Amino acid sequence: MSAPRFAVVLACVVLVSAQCLVAQRWSIDSTKTRRDTLRLPIVNVKDVADEDRFAITHAPDVQLGIINAGKKTEVIRMASVIGNTAVNNARQALIGIAGLNMFDNDAAGVNMSIGGRGLNPNRNIHFVTRQNGYDISADPYGYPEAYYTPPLEGVSRIDVVRGAGALRYGSQFGGTINFVMADGPRDRELGGDVSLTGGGYGFAGLFARVGGTIENTNYVALVNTRHSDGWRANSQLDQYTAYAAVTTRVSENVRLRADYTHMYFEGKQPGGLTDEQFGRDPSIALRDRNWFRLDWNVASLTADWFIDDATSLRSQFFGNLSFRRSVGMVASITTADTGGVRTVNIDEYRNVGNETTLQHDFEVGDQKWSALTGIRLYAGSTVRQQGNGTAEADANYAFTSSGRLEGSDFTFPTRNLAWFSEVVVRPFSRLSIVPGVRVESITTGSDGYYRLRDSTINSSEDRTRTVVLGGIGATYDLDDVQLTLNATQNYRAIWFSDLRITIPNYAIDPNIKDESGYTLEAGVRGKIGSTLSWDVTGFLLRYNGRTGEIVQNINGTSVRVRTNVADATSRGVEALADLSLTRLLTESTEAPDIHLVFNGTLLDSRYDTPSDTSIDGKFVEYAPSAIIRTGLQGTYKGFRGSFLVSHTAEQFTDAKNTLSSANATAGKIPAYTVADVTLGYTYDRYTLDVSCNNVFGASYFTRRSGSYPGPGIIPAEPRNVFATLRVTF
Question: Fewest beta carbons less than 10 Å away: which of 13, 64, 125, 511?
């Protein structure tokens, strides 16, 4: 979008926001409100009963502090998911979202790594990952890896907004994924549920939750533990998660909510494999001294002020104090671990922020318009250290040096100030036009030293930039069919790992720059009563100066160099369909409710840089040409079940589309097909679920790692069976 167009969009948003928030009279009913009544903004809810029957649902046009009109949105209601939520099985849980590419190397569900449209899935790095509306990644701008994923047994719903979410949630290319945790019961003072899960390879899980409502206060608290011995040697893990939230009405028009999450994880890492080793025996482990630990702490305080029936203000404070530790031998997998000192990496993440939004709904003529404006303040600091550790095999993350570390010691500060605004303009009842703008200042930097041979090199860098992003969306409503168009600019600031990295097999281009681009979407979605729900979207994602990795030979060693590889364009079509076979054949309410679900994506994601023939026309990393997920799921009285099949076409892990490399950090990921089955039965307060993941025992992998948890190929888990017994009270 050109500068003049930016100015037009900005002027429109400012003028309309001013009209909405100043010129409109805010009328507060002078009649005394009952003490048990809380003013809420008007929200239009349509066909909720019908939507709950489908795997495909969409967010309402306007929510508290959020405008979804004119965007591609998807909502997963966890109560309707028929799958293995005890291990966060993403293939089953996200069946209602098209086009997601996933890493399957985390069998216990510690991390949910998703990408799409040619974006790397690693720990959701191209999505703004949130819980209850606030950031939970390490650093949203400097290091947006989401090491923590909420336990799906405690989640109420998952909201996904694609690339157009850059205006409201931040400037990443992927959009946002928001895990909304379930509140306590509202109809009683105390209730809860407990579930126990057992599975193959020594998996044991516990989920326990209590909650309720006492007068004006709702509360919920949960704990979740997981242990697994792992299907490969040296791959045992333990995870513990605790979450608590309290929501209280402090006055007729004010509501406060506070929540806190703690997650602890420690696991042993068996290392990666070469292509030859994977083909011979994917269960072998070549490392027995590598460990990884996380201590994650995130919290928020949210104040909602319902000024009147049409105006609301939400202010959300949030913070993160977390640690990432690893110790091990991380050289190429072709190098045997013969003992000696190990490498220790320690990250400490400290950040705080506030996001405040003001929303006003009003009428122009006989049409309802909505305006939203907000600001975001954020400050973060990451300390990243690397040095020598002990030569033992235990989980000891202590540095052995009493002075300067042998690797590096850096502090990475981040500052972010943003203003955003969107307006829903309805010229007439069926058409919604949504112009929007985001203006933000981003500062990232580094300060510290690194060791090169026997020399200590001090390094300091500071990058500040002001970014203006514009976008516009539109929705045309034909009752049971909606047409959607959207164009949004995207931007990604370079991460800490783009500034300095001291990991074997990796190097950084010192001239690496930020990325820019845009997303175009055109979609049509609809439903036929309670029989069929469908959604088809065509998209184009443009990257300018896309950051990626190129394998280069440096001093006789294959090294992955991170740089601005080239410009790239991703084009594709995403399609979803949920057909109720029962409603197609009969109107009987006594018949089993059986659905056929189809989720498919066709993608062409390539570099287009004629000046570099080694890259021009090559496929973008982690961009399979097709992703298809389909299957049956149904319910009948107390029974429920699902059979889902996922197919992902071949993909590459570097920009030159290397077929294989000696150390297996770059190469092709062959196509794979994997199926999952879940059967369950509920009687009174008791529910029993039995799941089989990878039911046909496919041998496959979805990831080649350049460092942790590899390096090399990280095999996916073979067939595994789980059983969960849940009791509610």
Answer: 511
| Model pLDDT for residues 9-66, shown as the tens digit of each residue | 334 444 334 434 333 333 333 333 333 444 444 444 444 444 456 767 899 999 999 9
Number of domains present in the structure of the chain: 1
CA 484 – CA 433 distance, rounded (Å): 10
Residues 6+ apart with CB under 8 A from 134: 298, 300, 316, 318, 353, 355
Which residues, in sequence order, are CB contacts of 112 under 8 Å at separation 6+?
A: 88, 90, 102, 106, 124, 146, 149
| Antiparallel, parallel or unpaired: β 506-508 and 557-580 | parallel
Q: Which two tokens stand for residue 283?
A: 């269960």
For the entire predicted model, the pTM comes to 0.91
How many CA atoms lie less than 13 Å away from 504 in the CB half-sphere? 18
Secondary structure in 3-state letters for 605-666: EEECCCCCCCCCCCECCCCCCEEEEEEEEEEECCEEEEEEEEEECCEECCCCCCCCCCCCCC
Residue 264 lies in a domain: yes
CA distances from 340 to 330, 467, 505 (A): 12, 48, 19
The Cα 646–Cα 502 span in angstroms is 37
Sheet containing 155-161: which strands, arranged edge to edge?
Answer: 73-77, 155-161, 175-181, 127-131, 134-135
Q: Which DSSP letter does residue 78 get? A: G
Three-state DSSP state, 598:
strand
Domain of residue 674, residue span:
3-21+45-728
DSSP, res 139? B
Q: How does pLDDT run across 495-514, given as a tens digit for each residue?
A: 887 776 666 566 778 788 89
What would you report as the CA-atom Rg of the chain, rounded to the nearest whole angstrom? Answer: 25
In 3-state terms, the chain is what percent helix, strand and coil (to 5)? 10, 55, 35
- For residue 586, the tally of other CB atoms under 10 A from its CB is 10
On whether residue 674 sits in a domain, the answer given is yes
| 96/101 Cα distance (integer angstroms) | 13
CB-based contact 614:583 (threshold 8 Å): no
Coil/strand/helix, residue 68? coil
Query: Can you give the CATH number for the domain in which 383 is found?
Result: 2.40.170.20
Backbone angles phi, psi at 10, to 5 degrees: -60, -45
Is residue 569 assigned to a domain? Answer: yes
Within 13 A of 240's CA, how many CA atoms are on the CB side? 5
Q: Is residue 471 included in any domain, yes or no?
A: yes
Sign of the CA dihedral 245, 251, 252, 255? negative
Question: What confidence tens digit (pLDDT) does each residue in 339-358 have?
Answer: 999 999 999 999 999 999 99
Contacts of 195 (CB under 8 A, 6+ apart): 86, 153, 205, 206, 207, 208, 724, 725, 726, 727
Contact between 566 and 93 (Cβ < 8 Å): no
